[in-house]
Design brief:
The chain is of the alpha+beta class. The protein is built from nine helices and six strands; from the N terminus they run βββαβαβααβααααα. Helix 5 runs antiparallel to helix 7, helix 5 packs antiparallel against helix 9 and helix 8 packs antiparallel against helix 9.
């Protein structure tokens, strides 16, 4: 099953007065591009959390934000780190002196450094990380459900268009022999009008017709297109990084459609080639949103 690259999800985790909320959204992108917004005290865990997300998402522009709420500040911390408070006060005094300000340093000024002032309980920190990971997992689960639902709709539309292309190829195969025959009869009559010494069994005429047959025959292109379609369907049924491979197969299909157009000797085949190219382009637009 394929997945879309666009989706949104929220996840929650709570234990006593400690609660965590994770919010994630995904947009189209050629590669995985992850942006994290975390509380300052989780900065040291950013790499670990990035790896966690990368293990579950392969492509897309991902925005993930995490917020943590504590019921009481005292429950999060055991004691004030007085050394850090003194250090912050010194920094503020140095700033005041360097800038020539005469304002008194207030408690609110000091609280700008509040994350430095408290010694965190190791057990509490472990609980926080567990809840953060749980909330992120829940958010990704919800987002992936949305991505999979949209992926099913994309797959339905893509399969429908591929089926139409397959039908058009079958029609080309049905009319190409008769089209060649009609074209060659016209060519033969024109040649006889221009060159009086040509007769119906003239070997030179047969040689020219054989060359033209090779030039305008689209049998090989139809065979390759059908082979590409089979490969496309097989890839579509895979869930691992299908988007890039599908895009490559579409490029090959488009190349064959271009060749059919260049060889077309009737309006039916020409119109069919144009239709195939149009459908390929529509499918390509859909593929851009597949993970």
């Amino acid at each position: 099953m394929i997945s879309s690259m666009t989706g949104y999800g929220k996840g929650y985790a709570q234990e006593k007065d400690l609660s965590v909320e994770a919010e994630i959204k995904s947009l189209n992108n050629r590669y995985l591009d992850l942006s994290l917004r975390l509380p300052k005290f989780l900065a040291a865990k950013e790499f670990e959390l990035r790896e966690k997300v990368k293990n579950r998402i392969k492509r897309g522009k991902i925005y993930l934000s995490v917020s943590v709420r504590h019921g009481e500040l005292e429950e999060k911390f055991n004691e004030v780190d007085t050394t850090s408070v003194k250090y912050a006060l010194k920094i503020l005094k140095d700033i005041r002196k360097a800038s020539g300000l005469k304002n008194k340093i207030s408690f609110s000024d000091l609280m700008l450094f509040q994350n430095m002032f408290f010694k965190e309980d190791d057990e509490q920190a472990g609980t926080e990380m567990i809840l953060v990971e749980k909330a992120i997992d829940s958010a990704i689960d919800e987002m992936n459900k949305m991505r999979e639902a949209e992926g099913r709709e994309l797959e339905k539309d893509i399969r429908n268009r591929i089926s139409h292309i397959d039908q058009v190829i079958a029609n080309i195969e049905k009319v190409k022999e008769e089209s060649l025959k009609t074209y060659f009869e016209r060519f033969k009559e024109k040649a006889k009008q221009l060159t009086k010494d040509i007769v119906d069994n003239d070997q030179r005429l047969f040689t020219e017709l054989a060359i033209l047959s090779e030039r305008y025959d689209v049998t090989e292109e139809c065979v390759r297109l059908k082979s590409h379609i089979k490969m496309f369907i097989d890839t579509l049924e895979q869930s691992d990084d299908a988007g890039r491979r599908l895009n490559f197969i579409l490029q090959e299909m488009n190349r064959e459609a271009n060749t059919i157009n260049s060889k077309a000797i009737t309006s039916d085949i020409s119109h069919s080639g144009i239709y195939i190219k149009e459908e390929i382009e529509k499918i390509r637009e859909q593929i851009q949103n597949i993970e």
